[in-house]
Amino acid sequence: MTICEIQRAAQATTVESWRRREPALPTAAVLGIGPVAQALADAAHALLADGAPLRLVADPEYLVVLGEEAALPWVDGARYRGWDGSALTLTTHEVLPSADLSRKAALANAGADPATLVIVLPDQVLLAAGDDAGDMAPLPTA
Predict the structure, then answer these.
(1) I need a labelling partner for 36 at 20 to 30 A (CA). Which of 62, 63, 76, 84 fits?
(2) Cα–Cα distance between 96 and 19 in angstroms, integer?
(3) Which residues pair with 31 in a beta bridge?
(4) How far out from the chain centre does Cα 112 lie?
(5) 18 close to 112: Cβ distance less than 8 angstroms
(6) Using CA atoms, how far apart are residues 79 and 28, in angstroms rounded to an integer?
(7) How far apart are the C-alpha atoms of 93 and 70, rounded to whole Å?
(8) Residue 6 is inside which H or E element, if any?
(9) Can you give the residue ranges of every domain in the chain?
(10) What residues does 2 pair with on adjacent strands?
């Protein structure tokens, strides 16, 4: 699976603002952008070689590693994400009006499959889809 679309939040979703979240969401994924993505890839591949149960989603600029918090690689400059409903978002801040509304808007804007992994960032929304989307990025159960 690869990141197939990047949408600017202001154009594609209903993100209006963010507010501090207490307590933070449990970490379920880590995102690397640019040079941090390479460092994250190196760390993730080392963990995968040791049998860590991780899933990776990538494109030339971004890398997302999904897994249990204890299994995730920790890399300087990486951005950690947690499940807020059916979207991955900041662990320490809550998107308003909601991550699920942002997810629905992004999927509708892209005409994307509901199984698409959606990552809501402060200034953009990442969509990742593929033939194995269900295996790569299972949505959390309510």
Answers:
(1) 84
(2) 7
(3) 64, 79
(4) 16
(5) no
(6) 11
(7) 21
(8) strand 2-8
(9) 2-133
(10) 58, 129
